[in-house]
TrEMBL record:
Keywords of the record: Acyltransferase, Lipid biosynthesis, Lipid metabolism, Membrane, Transferase, Transmembrane, Transmembrane helix
InterPro entries: Plipid/glycerol_acylTrfase (IPR002123)
Organism lineage string: Bacteria, Pseudomonadati, Pseudomonadota, Alphaproteobacteria, Hyphomicrobiales
Chain ranges passing through the membrane: 6-30
Record CDD domains: LPLAT_AGPAT-like (cd07989)
Record's protein name: 1-acyl-sn-glycerol-3-phosphate acyltransferase
Signal peptide: none
EC number(s) recorded for this UniProt protein: 2.3.1.51
Length: 266
């Protein structure tokens, strides 16, 4: 059965890519608004093919410029979040050269940053600020790496420098920062506990192929995407204070989702 799912996934994604790729390339070439929306359809198809059912709670902030601060659990987070919003991701430069994922990242016009290269930091921040000013929704994973899905890892406050620098460059000198959590909460139609969560999580100790095969073997996976209360960040505000406030929101929201808060009658 698992190999049938592998074949199904391969066929579905191949067809979807062949159909959408030419249109996306045209959108990228002429910088058309279409190039922001089209990846959402590909991500939705990918989630369906992988057996991932996404449940959205509360709303995406409509005010711009908007920076989403999101916990990072697995490589599937990209497809999960990309299926519910037209977003641009911030990723480390190494991702650009990854097989398959690097190509997909470039097609979605991901913002690549080299954290260790301070000389290029100014240009990278300027690109983030420009994308925010252009009305794009930019996604930041402040943990800097994936986790086991059961907790929020220590957040790197330096990464919030993107919001600080953007606030100095965007109109109104204000960036809206919205915490968002991704929680893998169901497997086989039942609540997912700590024992099963590694099936969905990708903490980095497992290769990509074994992770993919484990996910396909598991069958249907439920994931909760929760949008939190937006934090207004103005020019001159403290990025470390923003980091602390965003981290507190992420921990509270993730804990609520993992405890089955969205499954209980409200």
């Amino acid at each position: 059965m698992m190999w049938l799912r592998v074949i199904y996934l391969t066929v579905v994604l191949t067809v979807a890519t062949l159909v959408l790729l030419p249109v996306q390339l045209i959108g990228l070439c002429f910088d058309l608004p279409l190039r922001r929306r089209l990846p959402r359809y590909w991500h939705r198809i990918a989630c369906h093919a992988l057996g991932i059912k996404v449940h959205v709670h509360d709303r995406l902030e409509t005010a711009k410029p908007l920076l989403l601060v999101v916990n990072h659990v697995s490589w599937t987070d990209i497809m999960v979040l990309g299926s519910v919003a037209d977003v641009a991701f911030i990723a480390k430069t190494e991702v650009r050269d990854w097989p398959v994922f690097g190509v997909l990242a470039r097609l979605q016009k991901t913002i690549f940053i080299a954290r260790e290269q301070k000389r290029s930091a100014g240009a990278q921040v300027n690109e983030i600020a420009q994308r925010l000013a252009d009305g794009e929704i930019v996604v930041l994973f402040p943990e800097g790496t994936t986790s086991d899905g059961n907790r929020i890892l220590p957040v790197k406050s330096s990464l919030f420098g993107a919001a600080s620098s953007a606030a100095e460059q965007v109109p109104g000198e204000l960036v809206h920062v919205q915490p968002v959590t991704i929680a893998y909460t169901g497997i086989y139609g039942m609540a997912m506990g700590r024992y099963h969560r590694p099936v969905a999580a990708w903490p980095g100790t497992v290769g990509l192929v074994p992770s993919l095969l484990g996910l396909l073997k598991a069958g249907a996976i439920d994931v909760d995407v929760s949008f939190g209360e937006t934090i207004p960040f103005r020019r001159g505000d403290n990025r470390k204070a923003l980091s602390v406030q965003a981290t507190m929101s992420l921990r509270a929201m993730l804990g609520f989702s993992l405890r089955g808060g969205w499954r209980k009658p409200r």
